[in-house]
Write a structure and sequence with these properties.
Elements: H1 3-16, H2 23-35, H3 41-58, H4 60-75, H5 82-103, H6 105-109, H7 115-135, H8 147-157, H9 167-177, H10 182-209, H11 219-244, H12 250-268
Helix pairs in contact: 1-2, 1-11, 3-10, 3-11, 4-5, 5-8, 5-10, 7-9, 7-12, 8-9, 9-10, 10-11
Length: 275
């Protein structure tokens, strides 16, 4: 990979990782449009470590509280409060995507990255955003989160294995269908993604240097890319949490649908290669 490609794709990753527009879909589209080649799922997974570090820093106090509450609760039944339950909710909610991610790893790295699939999913999943906004009452707060919510949102997170869906978009939609407040669903979506993305990035690290599919990147490129993704990802988190407090997720559908149609048009006229 060239340094220009690494920098551009890292900027795209940082700006889109937490927005419900699909960072993996954008990386796939930008790679093909400007460089005529897929950077690969392994590169994507590794630079996602930068954006997940942004989550760890942004929510450091909350994460420490949940972790310490979980560990204390393991050995002391009397102190098993909400923080203890939250620890288990994140763990249990991560299991579906971890299992499917492992079982479908070859499809994720190759077949699922077809741009016809990405374009179609960008359009179709936008309708899910709109339905979730209309159906959900947005009446339940953070302290009302339950294990059922975690499992449901964890199952929705599995859809993010397909470029074009969006990890945050999938989990947040699941939360809205469970009548969670927008900001509550968004915050839990970020927390739920931490174990899955960190595991995926570390698992894909060796393959990023010598990928079976996609392009190879040097250690320096992966480091710089992750750093760029971290800085922009941190800003994106702050912006999104402020945005969702007063605005509908349906606004993102207004961006995703034209993008999906544009990609389909480019593919149809042979200006982009779908594979």
């Amino acid at each position: 990979m060239s340094w220009l490609q690494v920098i551009v794709l890292s900027i795209v990753q940082g700006l889109t990782e937490f927005l419900p527009v699909s960072s993996s879909g954008h990386l796939r589209i930008v790679s093909e449009l400007f460089w005529g080649e897929d950077a690969g799922a392994s590169f994507t997974a590794v630079i996602q470590l930068g954006t997940e570090l942004a989550v760890l820093v942004f929510f450091a106090k909350d994460i420490w509280r949940f972790l310490s509450g979980w560990f204390v609760g393991l050995f002391n039944r009397e102190k098993r409060g909400f923080d203890y339950r939250m620890g288990w909710m994140v763990i249990v909610g991560t299991i579906p995507v971890a299992v499917l991610g492992f079982l479908l790893k070859d499809l994720i790295r190759e077949n699922f990255r077809n741009l016809w699939i990405t374009a179609a999913v960008l359009i179709l999943f936008s309708l899910v955003f709109i339905a979730a906004e209309r159906k959900g009452t947005k009446s339940r707060g953070f302290e009302e989160l339950t294990m059922t919510d975690a499992i449901v949102m964890g199952l929705w997170q599995c859809l993010a294995l397909i470029p074009g869906v969006s990890r945050s978009g999938g989990t947040i939609s699941g939360g809205l269908f469970r009548n969670l407040d927008r900001e509550v669903a968004t915050r839990f979506s970020f927390l739920l993604a931490i174990p899955a993305v960190l595991a995926s990035g570390l698992f894909s690290l060796p393959d990023a240097f010598s990928p079976q599919a996609g392009q190879a990147a040097s250690g320096a490129q992966l480091f710089v890319g992750s750093a760029i993704a971290f800085a922009l990802g941190y800003a994106s988190i702050a912006w999104l949490l402020k945005f969702v407090s007063n605005n509908s997720f349906a606004w993102f559908a207004a961006y995703r649908i034209p993008l999906g149609l544009l990609v389909m048009a480019l593919l149809g006229f042979g200006l982009m290669n779908p594979a």
